[in-house]
Amino acid sequence: MKKFWSLVLMAVLAIGMLVGCSGGGQKASQTAATNKNEGEAKSEETAISAEEIKGTIKVGGLFDLTGGTGDVGTPYAEGEKAYFEYLATQGPVNGYKLELIGDDYAYKIPEATKLYQKLKSKDQVAAILGWGTGDTEALRQLVAADKLPFISASYSENLKNMDESPYNFLSAASYSDQARSALKWIKDNHTAGTPTVALLYNDTAFGKSPIQDAKDFAAEIGIEVVDEQIVDLKALDATPQLLNMQKKNPDYAIIQETWGATATILKDAKKLGITTQFIGLNWATGEGLLPITGDAAEGFIGVVTHAFPYEDLPGLAEIKTFLESKGEKLEDKNQKFVQGWVAAKIMVEGIRLADDPTTGEGIRAGLEKINNLDLQGLAAPVTFSADNHAGTNQIRLAQVKDGKFEVITDYIGH
Question: Taking a C-beta distance cutoff of 8 angstroms, is the pair 357, 126 a contact?
C-alpha cells in the first residue's frame, strides 16, 4: 500500500513540474516577445525623433550685463536665455532645435560690432536678438546686407524706416510712440490750463531717440515743452539739472533713462521739494527701480510695455511652470525678465512660421506672417507685414502706490 501511494505522489509531482515548466516557458516567451516589441517601438520612436530633427538653428544674442544699462539689461538677457531653455523642453520648432548663443558687450558699440561679426561668421547664426539703440542703429546696414532678422531691446523710431532697416523688427511700442501716448494721456487728464512738460534724458542714441518726436507731438496737441535736461545714465547726483528745471516749474517731466538715473532724479527731486509729476518711459519703469529709490518713487508714473510677474495674466503660466521645474519662483523675477522672454518668443514665432527657417530671408518672411500675435497679456498683440516692422504702438501706464507699481490704464495709443 505504501508503495502504491509513493507512486501516486511521484506522478503528481511530475505533472506539476511539467505544468510549471510549460507555464514558465510560455511566460518567458511572452516576456521575450514583449521586450522585442517594446525595443522595436523604441527604435521606431527614436528613428522618428531623429527624422523630425532636421538640424540646429542658432540665434545670436547681444547682451548688456556690465555696461551703462546693465541694471535692466541683465534681467532682460536672463529672460531671453530662459525662453530658449524652456523651448528645449517643448520639442523641435519647424523641425529644428533652436540654440541661443550670445555674450556681454558692456554697452560699447565697437564691442557690439565685434560680437556681431563673430556671431555671423563663426557661429553662423540665422537671426539676432540685440540690445541697445546705439549699437542696433550702428549695425543696421550690416544687418540689411547680411539679411539677418534683428529684434533688439531698442525701440528707436528710426528702426521703423523700412528702407534703412529692412531686417529690424520692433517688438514693442517705439520710444517715440511711448512718449506720444504719455503726452496724449497728459492732455486728456490735465485740468488746469495748458499743461507744461520737461524732458529729462541721457546723451546717448537711446536717450535722445524720442526727444524731437515728443516735442513735435506736444506742439501738435497743445502741450508746452518748457525745459530739457541731460542726466547721465550713471549719474549719482541730478541736483543741478533739477534746480534748472525747477525754475520753469513744469507740471510734468518725462524721463528717458534706466533705473539708476531715474532713481537719482526722483530722490533728488524729493530732497528739493519738487512737485512735478514724473513719468518714465519703459526702461525707467519696473520693480528694480523701487528698492534703490525708496519712498521717493511714490506717485511716479511709468510706461508699461510688458507684464509685471505679479499680475493675474494667462501668459505668465508657462513662465511660472518652467521656473518651478528649475526650483525657481516667478515672484523672484521682474518685468524686464518678462520683456526678454517675450522678445525671444516673438523671434521663435517667426522661425515657426518660416517656410525656410534656416536662412535670414526665410525667418524675415516668417516674422512678416505674424498677425495679431496673442501674447496672453505678457505684452500688447504684435503684427508685422512686408511693409511694416513696427509690431505695436500700444502701452499701459502704471503708478507707484505703497511701494508697488499698479497699472492705471488699459492699453492706450495716441
Answer: yes
